[in-house]
Amino acid sequence: MYFDGNAASSADMRYFNWLVLAVQVLGVVSVVITAVWMGHFRGGFAWQSDPLHEFNYHPLFMIIGMVFLYADAILAYRVFRNDRKILIKILHACMHIFALIFASVGLKAVFDSHNLNSKPIPNLYSLHSWVGLFVVVCFGLQWVLGFVSFLWPKLGMGARAMYMPYHTFWGVLLLILATATALMGITEKAFIHKEDIQYSSLSSEAILINCLGIILLMFTGLVVYLVTKPEYKRQPAPEEDHVALDN
Predict the structure, then answer these.
(1) Is the whole model's pTM more than 0.85, yes or no?
(2) Are 26 and 222 in contact (CB under 8 A)?
(3) Of 163, 122, 129, 169, which Cα lies nearest the Cα of 146?
(4) d(CA 70, CA 174)
(5) Count of other CB atoms within 10 angstroms of residue 224
(6) CB 54: neighbour CB atoms within 10 A?
(7) Cys bridge to 178: 66, 75, 160, 165, which one at CB 3.0-4.6 A?
(8) Is residue 54 within 8 Å of 113, Cβ to Cβ?
(9) Which helix (H) or strand (E) holds 106?
(10) For 116-203, where are the alpha helices, taking DSSP H only?
(11) How buried is 153 (Cβ within 10 angstroms: 0-12 exposed, 13-18 middle, 19+ buried)?
(12) Do the beta carbons of residue 215 and residue 26 sit within 8 Å?
């Protein structure tokens, strides 16, 4: 259904609210499933004294940071559409910081689990690790460029208007790539431990893993739909910039 005009109708916004609620439920469920998988099926959590179980922080923190918090940061301009733009910018930036913190700890966990193992495991040999590192580095760069462009010290209006489409494009693309990386990591973990998991027999752990992947796909699909649908775009208030610089 398509709505003409600059703003969505009240009926369309009710639909939007239900979709946002669905996104939050799917995001929380994905985090809970990951915690159950790592905590119950993979032996729980530890830090450097137990590198094998330190790894379990990696998938949990990466999904919290690079999928759930990242997606909510992107949605901030849609959800808080009636609030002051500067407040939304600060919220958007802060949520990205928390996402980056979780991602950084998640990366440390996986590197420690390799380097501190009694038989050290090579780092950065898999496609999952290559794509994942690319996403995190680009995510950090995206945050820095966004902060300099739109918060402080701010580029000129013309430069901001020119950069905004690229910022939006890379924001959505990196979320998609982060989800794809998570799916690659889930599959890699499942096949490394396929005998233990009894993956081909569809054990309870195998079903949990597959459900996690499907939920992540649904979550990211809904987020991309919400942030790319023109009717849900935040409309600038009269006192704000005349140039369309909203996400």
Answers:
(1) yes
(2) yes
(3) 163
(4) 9
(5) 17
(6) 21
(7) 66
(8) yes
(9) helix 85-115
(10) 127-146, 157-192, 194-197
(11) exposed
(12) yes
**What is the C-alpha separation between 191 and 213, in angstroms, rounded?**
14
Q: Tell me whether residue 22 is exposed, middle or buried, using C-beta atoms within 10 angstroms of its C-beta: 0 to 12, 13 to 18, 19 or more.
A: middle
Backbone angles phi, psi at 142, to 5 degrees: -60, -40
DSSP class of 7: S
Look-up of token digits 């409309």: 235
- The two three-digit tokens of residue 179, written as one number: 């989800």
pLDDT tens, N- to C-terminus, the chain (247 residues): 333 334 556 767 889 999 999 999 999 999 999 999 999 999 999 999 999 999 999 999 999 999 999 999 999 999 998 899 999 999 999 999 999 999 999 999 999 999 999 999 999 999 999 999 999 999 999 999 999 999 888 788 899 999 999 999 999 999 999 999 999 999 999 999 999 999 999 999 999 999 999 999 999 999 999 999 988 888 776 666 544 444 5
What would the two tokens of residue 181 be? 């990386």
Residues 19, 225 contacting (CB under 8 angstroms): yes
167: its two tokens: 């910022």
